Task: inverse folding
């Protein structure tokens, strides 16, 4: 009996192992239909508080104005998924978060060309409106440091060159490996490349600069990882996006921002090629870059407003990281989407090959 | 064991399983294989690139070394543990089993985040080392940290098959060995260890092959310099949208894994590994 119950237990254990393996798959989500004037837009972003804010700032006002349009939210957004859906001919997503460079690179191939009507690009920050995307918000990733580590303002880091100077400023650095957060721009700016001479980017030079402080740098795979590392004091200086800096400031972390040159990138929404609700999706995209929704998303996330007419009502911490606000005493560079879209594969491969070896 | 052959009248029972496997495994796998040799045009360039890009081989080697280290560590910890499980009272055995299974039933994400907190700079593990005078011991973002966390995650896959095999070993054989004048060490190596080898190989194969495909732990605990092959795959799929190159890499990993399993099978009769439970049950009934 004894050994019998033992083997039963072991059998249960192995069954659990199999179940665990089987549970590694993902889940699908509902498609959309346009029957009876009702439209369900499937909206795919990166989840979490960012997507919650987009629901409140973009989707709820749109549904209020167009009661026949409802939204199905899903995450995470993933261009590979878009490609899989487009190539298999089963397009389930209608609006998807995407890097504008990727939307431009695959414009007309994976993403619908958009007809945005009367939008005037003069009302927007550079690169906010593209042929295949609209910017839903921008992100600045200013140089910030932990003021507990450098308490004396006189001897604290003041320039991007200081970020790369571990002899003068010992301490751990943190950067996000995503191209959108300026990993290739900052080392060149630190070397004194003029902001308007950045593009075409000298990728090798940028990586060589990182190589000089590689052992002192945390290369975080995503924004959340760097935010976590900054919050727990794992990194002393970091290039973290504005919305996450606000979160840290709200947690009363002693963080100071160095307004040298700051890299700004645009986050975008696009419509996968073959979406059954293209017209509605397009109209929705047009609605969300109007001053009202833009101001609202800026207030909620602390991101950069893409519409220059938006008048967000910022908190003190929001003002502290506001890249287009009076606090920014330095310069600003907006990422060159055109250049990135033409060199995306090459730059991505180069950066990742450098990172993994 | 020899009477376990499938009798033909019962083959319809296999249909659902085979249909499921064909649908979710064979068809996509064939699709991946075909795409990897047919994009762009019929070519093996996706495969030759793997050997010439200077990165894939480095990462593959790193993956193999990490997986081997994790397997060795899991075996070193798991074997005595499984042995202990066979020697204690049923109640204690139940407790030991639950100790193995609770982390097993806990979300992988939760466990990995827990490891971040434990291993990070200023975390408990580092403080412990500092207490003993060893400053600057860094685990977070290093291969050591990744290996420790992976070992913990993998331990159940080692302990369960080992326990099943060790529990089935007839201990009177050891008594006989001692009675014939063997020392305890010799009795272990000459009698117990060979009898336990199928369980060892089962655990080793399970842990090693699962470790080869690990994604979450190195992604969360390691730095990009410790990327394993799964991260390379993810990058090729999600950033470059190069499904053909990713497919080629996946097929290469699959082939390497199958070769290793076949080799291990020759070494230790592993296919019975998958059937250790059945073997254990037969022994138990006797």
Result:
């Amino acid at each position: 009996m004894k050994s019998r119950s033992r083997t039963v237990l072991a059998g249960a254990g192995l069954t659990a192992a199999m179940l665990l393996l089987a549970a590694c798959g993902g889940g699908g989500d509902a498609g959309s239909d346009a029957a009876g004037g009702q439209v369900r837009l499937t909206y795919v972003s990166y989840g979490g508080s960012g997507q919650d804010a987009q629901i409140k700032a973009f989707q709820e006002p749109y549904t209020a104005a167009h009661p026949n349009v409802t939204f199905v939210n899903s995450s995470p957004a993933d261009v590979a998924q878009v490609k899989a859906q487009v190539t298999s001919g089963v397009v389930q997503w209608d609006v998807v978060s995407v890097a504008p460079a990727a939307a431009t690179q695959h414009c007309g191939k994976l993403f619908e060309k958009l007809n945005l009507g009367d939008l005037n690009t003069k009302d927007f920050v550079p690169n906010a409106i593209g042929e295949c995307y609209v910017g839903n918000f921008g992100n600045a990733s200013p140089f910030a440091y932990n003021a507990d580590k450098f308490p004396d303002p006189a001897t604290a880091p003041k320039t991007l060159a200081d970020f790369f100077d571990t002899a003068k400023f010992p301490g751990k650095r943190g950067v996000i490996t995503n191209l959108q957060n300026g990993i290739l721009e900052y080392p060149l700016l630190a070397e004194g490349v003029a902001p308007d001479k950045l593009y075409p980017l000298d990728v090798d030079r940028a990586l060589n600069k990182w190589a000089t402080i590689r052992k002192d740098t945390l290369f975080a795979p995503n924004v959340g990882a760097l935010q976590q590392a900054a919050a727990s004091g794992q990194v002393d200086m970091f290039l973290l996006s504005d919305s996450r800096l606000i979160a840290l400031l709200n947690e009363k972390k002693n963080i100071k921002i160095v307004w040298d040159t700051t890299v700004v990138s645009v986050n975008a929404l696009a419509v996968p090629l073959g979406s059954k609700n293209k017209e509605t999706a397009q109209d929705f995209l047009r609605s969300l870059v109007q001053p009202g929704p833009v101001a609202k998303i800026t207030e909620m996330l602390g991101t950069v407003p893409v519409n220059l007419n938006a008048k967000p009502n910022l908190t003190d911490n929001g003002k502290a990281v506001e890249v287009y606000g009076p606090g920014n005493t330095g310069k600003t560079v907006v990422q060159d989407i055109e250049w990135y879209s033409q060199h995306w594969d090459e730059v991505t491969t180069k950066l990742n090959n450098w990172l993994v070896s | 064991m020899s009477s376990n052959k499938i009798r033909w009248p019962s083959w319809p029972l296999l249909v659902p399983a085979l249909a499921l496997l064909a649908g979710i495994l064979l068809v996509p796998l064939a699709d991946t294989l075909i795409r990897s040799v047919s994009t762009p045009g019929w070519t093996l360039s996706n495969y030759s690139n793997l050997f010439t890009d200077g990165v894939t081989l480095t990462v593959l080697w790193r993956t193999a070394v990490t997986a081997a280290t994790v397997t060795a560590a899991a075996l070193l910890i798991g074997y005595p543990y499984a042995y202990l499980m066979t020697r204690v009272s049923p109640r204690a055995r139940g407790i030991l089993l639950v100790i193995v299974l609770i982390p097993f039933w806990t979300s992988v994400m939760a466990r990995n985040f827990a490891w971040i907190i434990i291993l990070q700079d200023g975390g408990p593990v580092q403080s412990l080392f500092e207490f003993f005078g060893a400053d600057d011991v860094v685990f977070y973002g290093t291969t050591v940290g990744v290996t420790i966390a992976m070992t913990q995650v993998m331990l159940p896959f080692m302990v369960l098959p080992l326990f099943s095999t060790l529990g089935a070993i007839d201990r009177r054989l050891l008594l006989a060995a001692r009675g014939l004048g063997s020392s305890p060490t010799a009795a272990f190596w000459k009698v117990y260890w060979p009898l336990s080898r199928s369980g060892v190989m089962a655990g080793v194969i399970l842990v090693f092959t699962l470790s080869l495909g690990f994604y979450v732990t190195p992604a969360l605990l390691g730095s990009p310099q410790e990327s394993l092959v799964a991260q390379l795959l993810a990058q090729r799929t999600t950033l470059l949208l190069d499904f053909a190159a990713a497919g080629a890499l996946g097929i290469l990993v699959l082939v390497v894994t199958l070769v290793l399993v076949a080799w291990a099978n020759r070494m230790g009769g592993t296919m019975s590994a998958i059937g250790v439970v059945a073997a254990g049950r037969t022994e138990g009934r006797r």
User: Anything to note?
Assistant: Chain A has two domains: 35-138+266-314, 140-265+332-356. Residues 2-22 of chain A form the longest helix (21 residues). The interface with chain B takes residues 2-7, 9-11, 13-14, 16-17, 20, 78-80, 83, 106, 172, 177, 218-219, 221, 225, 228, 232-234, 345, 348-349, 352-353, 355-357 of chain A (CB under 8 Å). Confidence is low (pLDDT under 50) at residues 1-36 of chain A.
